[in-house]
């Protein structure tokens, strides 16, 4: 922790911190509002997106629930997600906390905890999953973008109804 | 997102961001600790407070679960809420994330995701509802206040036991 | 609230705010990843750690679920927790929001809301408890540390399976 704190005070300005927090907020809002094109636009051209379980992540297994290598695949995922979720009337809500930022050359290594809730038309709001984002963020002009986002869910019982990115 | 990020870097300083985060924290703490007068004091004289469902909000329907037009009505709501909740021994907990801020003239357009949990005396902690705050915040001297707060809940099945503001 | 906001603008810089947010993030990550030694290293030599219920806290009762007086007892707790949780394959996830900071001499009085979720091997993710952190934070060189952390849970039905700190 002391190392992290030290580097922050040396290298990561408030502007950068808020820029990254804004990227996280924009990402969550895009998914919760079903704006999948805006979700895809949170990534760089060569970005990696991966949704995997804690078990696979800790064992270093390449198996993932969703895996996208590059913006093309992310755009495809955005398109198929908007097609498949039209028939499913549910609201998603992302809650994110504990964002930590470490400068790494010109990039930033960022991590955070997430919780996703869903509300079906005829049911009360319920927990879908919790987990951790492990990210690499870059600055492109005035924009902050994900060069890499790995979503590690805590659950092994992955609900098959979830076609959407986390 | 790029527009939002750009405007932030131009216009919203760290002091303003933290001031708004403090207002959000003070608002949650007031509700969770049953200090409804302090809750009412988070609003300006002419403030609007509205608690509505996602469906009504998206259709632009004026129907709301709670609607207050001006501080007088908000004070009234604070008073009736403290009267009605005395008999109901439960603890509420507000979790808020993804606060985004955009300068709009002298005001700030702010949005965030929320999750409310409750703990009844004889039960485990459970999710009450999730949703989104859509706000207009103003600065009055050193104080940040809500000129308008709209709480949009994700659920249609609104628990009738909830008389309290969200 | 106005007092709090005023003091913040006078005394608590963005660097201090982010330093405290980083301490909170490091604390949560240490517990969620089972790094109990790192958890213990979030405290000063003479730190107090207490986990208690809302009822006991409000009545000023000294009874606590966990009580540690000084780093020695915190280190002991870290050791016993790692021993007892090995046999229990579950993932914890801390979500924290509403961090408020007030300068008090050279120290900082900090409070925040928390939500803890757990995922057992064969179950969906579920809420364990919600509550409030009431803390005193000090700066030791470049490091932010807890001089005191009191975790006040909202629940009376405290699950006996929870041996871990909150």
Protein model, in words:
Three copies of one chain form a homotrimer. Chain A is of the alpha+beta class and 166 residues long. The first copy, chain A, has a single domain (2-153), classed as Roll (Nuclear Transport Factor 2, Chain: A), CATH 3.10.450.50. The first copy, chain A, contains five helices and six strands, in the order H-H-H-E-H-E-H-E-E-E-E. Chain A has helices at residues 2-11, 14-32, 36-40, 54-59, 71-85; strands spanning 43-53, 66-69, 90-104, 107-120, 126-140, 143-153. Chain A has a six-stranded mixed sheet with strand order 2-1-6-5-4-3. In chain A, a hairpin with a 5-residue loop joins strand 4 (107-120) and strand 5 (126-140). Chain A is globular. The model of chain A is unreliable at 1-10 (pLDDT under 50). Chain A binds chain B through residues 14-15, 18-19, 21-26, 28-30, 32, 38, 41-42, 91, 93-97, 115, 117, 119, 121-127, 142-144, and chain B through 1-2, 4-6, 8-9, 12, 14, 17, 54, 95, 97-100, 111-113, 115, 127-132, 154-157, 159.
Strand content of chain A: 35-45%
Helix content of chain A: 25-40%
- Over all CA atoms, what is the radius of gyration of chain A? 16 Å
- Cα separation of the termini of chain A: 27 Å
| CATH class placement of chain A | Alpha Beta
The outline of chain A comes out as: globular
CATH topology of chain A: Nuclear Transport Factor 2, Chain: A
Q: Which features would summarize this protein structure in a list?
A:
5 helices, Nuclear Transport Factor 2, Chain: A, disordered N terminus, alpha+beta, 6-stranded mixed sheet, 166 residues, 33% helix, homotrimer
